[in-house]
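Bench log. Compound arrived from synthesis this morning; before running ITC I wanted a structural hypothesis for how zinc ion sits in the protein. Inputs:
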Amino acid sequence: MYLNFIIPTILALYAGYAKKVTIPGTLLAWLFGIIIYTWGNYPAFIALATVFILTILSDKIKKTKKDGTRNIKQMISNVLTATLCIILHYITDNNVFYIMYYCVIGSSLADTLASSIGTLSRKKPINIFTMKKIETGQSGGVSLLGIFASLCGGMIVGVIYLEVDANFSNFLLISFMGLCGSIFDSILGTIFEAKYQCIVCKKQVEEKKHCNKKTKLIKGFPMIDNNMVNLLSNIFVFVICYILLY
Ligand SMILES: [Zn+2]
């Protein structure tokens, strides 16, 4: 039936048409989708599609307004590591990589839900190190609601995994890795992510431009933006799972 080709194509056409993802981003996501469906089978693709759909839905509930169109950098930082797990599983036929795929995808969903549902918290998030309150929507902040949301993210992907293999300890690993990845994301965001200050409105922002003016770097490294943080936390989950599963 060539579903492994048809379904990713339908989703990619929607993502591109509805401007959820830029055209280069859509093309790469489409390629990743086909690889994941073909070599990871439909449950792996369902996990990916779930992340995609919940990401779009969570954009709608976010309090902090950001450009909703995902670009190719975001596709690479969020899906490349997971796709690599599927490719490694295909090449080596080692089941460890298949479980790792769900862990990485689970941590992506956990992070997405934490950063969207987390912003709904009435209390301001706290900086994970200083324990001081910071502005809602800034990376590196954690809230109780955000932690709960990230645990849910890992569990949703864990439930999809149970369809393939009714192994409860792997379900727990996937759920736990969702939480881990999301916390690691916050830690990296707090220490290394570049933060800028707008010279016009004085707000602390993550963008290199604000109010049509170049912003001033006040913290972190210019190389490390939110995409880099996401990629690094996916790699972190990849490495930790590999160690744990061996
Ligand atoms: Zn500004």
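What the model suggests: The first strand starts at residue 126 and ends at 127. Residues 8 and 33 are 5 Å apart (CA to CA).
ITC booked for Thursday regardless.
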